Amino acid sequence: MGASNSKPDKVPVLGSAEENPLSIIPVFRTSLRESYTVSKKTVLKLKPNSILSVESNIVDTRGFYVFRKTGSFLSCCLEFSDDAGNVLATVENKIRCLETTAWIKLGDSSGDVVATLVHHYRGKNSKVFIYIHQDPLPLEETECSRRNPNIKVVGDIGSHQFYFKMADKKIAQVQRSTENQMYSLEVGPNTDIAFITICTAAIDLIHLRSSLTPLDLCCCFFGSEFIDEEPEDEETD
Fold first, then answer.
1. DSSP secondary structure of 10-45
2. What Rg value do the Cα atoms of the chain yield, rounded?
């Protein structure tokens, strides 16, 4: 199972259907963009998070500044701003052995939750399940244990070779870049660029922290292979 996850995936990024676009993060009026959900493919470049710093600009293929992420490795929290400095979203986490839950909140940390990420650490077999809340919810109301995820993230997360799958379609993928200390994110058409970028950076930070946590490493080493189980309840919102 681990070997298959480490191989490059040849399936093209299709994005979301035009009649059912994925749109989560609203655009501020002062932004240079009209929407984060566009009808064409978008490629961005990100700097991997590190113990020393998680702050960096996220740029397009021309090197133009699109987003900025700030935060802390120790607290495992992130904040994302647009090209005009408006705070788009924050990410907060609850860390447990082999499992981290992250909440994406609109605006600052007082905002409601638009998505919940659950990261299951199993080394190269790690996976992330993303639960989208169509109506933003207070954090205490974001129980997802009886839901199936809207998006699955699979691949070799630590090597920046993974992809996002929604309704059996690859909507985005992350790949190593030829540029030093960078990786690329390809987001398919009709798929929220800001939301996928936020998820990508959050997953990178969560996985890095888990890979450097002795307890997680021990549990992963002595534990069993990751079992792709989903809740029996088919409910989604």
1. -S------TTS-B--SPPPTTSS-S-S--SS-EEEE
2. 17
Supply the mean pLDDT for the chain: 87
Least confident range of 98-102, 114-118, 221-225: 221-225
Contact assessment for residue 32 and residue 39, using Cβ atoms and an 8 Å cutoff: no
Q: Where are the domains of the chain?
A: 2-222
Contact 163, 147 (CB under 8 A): no
Task: Look at the block and give the residue holding tokens 């919102």.
Answer: 237
DSSP per-residue letters across 70-98: EEETTTTEEEEE-TTS-EEEEEEEEEETT
Taking domain 2-222, whether its CATH number is 2.40.160.200 is answered by yes
Q: What's the pLDDT tens digit per position in 23-41?
A: 999 999 777 778 999 999 9
When pLDDT is cut at 50, 70 and 90, the band that residue 209 belongs to is confident
| C-alpha dihedral (100, 106, 112, 115), degrees to nearest 10 | -40
**Looking up tokens 């702050």, which residue turns up?**
55
Confidence of residue 126 (pLDDT cuts 50, 70, 90): very high
CB-CB neighbours of 90 under 10 Å: 21
CA angle at 152 for the pair 66 and 117, rounded to the nearest 5°: 65
Question: Torsion angle of alpha carbons 156, 158, 160, 166, nearest 10°?
Answer: 50
3 state SS of 144: coil
C-alpha triplet 122, 124, 125: angle, nearest 5°: 55
pLDDT score recorded for residue 109: 87
Residue 190 and residue 39 in contact, taking contact as beta carbons nearer than 8 Å: yes
Query: What's residue 220's pLDDT?
Result: 57
